[in-house]
Amino acid sequence: MKKLLVFIFLGVAVACAFGQSKKGSGKGSAPSWLTNPEKDFPKKEYIRAIGEGATEKAAKASAVAEISMFFETKTEVVTQAVNRSSEIVQEDKKMFSSNKSFAQIVNIKSNADFFGVNFTDPVYDSKNDKYTLLAYLKKSEAVEIYKTRIAALVESVDTLVAYAKKESEAFLAAGALLKAKSFATLAEQYIKAETVIVPSDSEGYKDTLKNLAKLDADIASVKKHLTFSIVMNPKDKKFDPVFSTICSIVEKRGMAYSLNGSKYKIVVDISCQEEEYDAGPFVRASADILVVNGAGKGLYTYSKAYPRAGSKTLDLAYTRAIYKINQDLEENFLSDY
Question: What pTM was computed for the model?
Fold first, then answer.
């Protein structure tokens, strides 16, 4: 019985050692795409790149970055446009519920999705503690994906521009054009990628690119009419930092703050509930912000209740509460505009 147990134990040990060897450096068992990628993914048909990283995710990111270099595309620009497009899809479902092309945009979630990249199974090198994989896209399939998404993005840009032209409120028109700009950026990147694969298609996109480029001038023209005044309620000096933050956000978006003769007004209502505990005083703040036109009609709202903030003194508790308000506004106020 003891001999049998020893034999079983040795058998398991040998199996584990073989498994580790296969999972590790892979001597004698490396996949063909690693030793001879041209055989499985010939450059004539595929765009490919090998990525390495401490994790599988890092290896994928490395490979996608290499593929992006093939297109000379900055992945940061793509990421920003993809994220912005996803946000717009979620916010404006009603506006685009009848726009079938929008379905083509909502599926874009990452740079890998943008390029239409697929991945091989990763190989783990235990000796060097790293993952290696190959990212690839078939040129013919990528071109079809790109053409479909370009058409969808351009259609959505046209929808937004048409809405902006009919909209009498400069604030709402500018919002539509800014959203259109996000889609236009993505469309331009797709056109660039598609024409890298098929250079002869460049001629067919000239008019499309000209129309997309006009957006900057349209946005600048509308923004000339976007002047704001800010009304703080209550008028308390301790809320001056919130006033400054909102003013900065407005100006960063190309709108002008004006004390007199402004076309729009930002009304900021801040309420603070003071609470006393054994640990000290706490302040529970909330903010309600409304953008109105000259006739007092509401055009944009933002509301947020914040977690209570405490400190040794009430003044410090207010300082912390106001810091939380400012931090949130910098990240979120007008971000969906």
Answer: 0.74
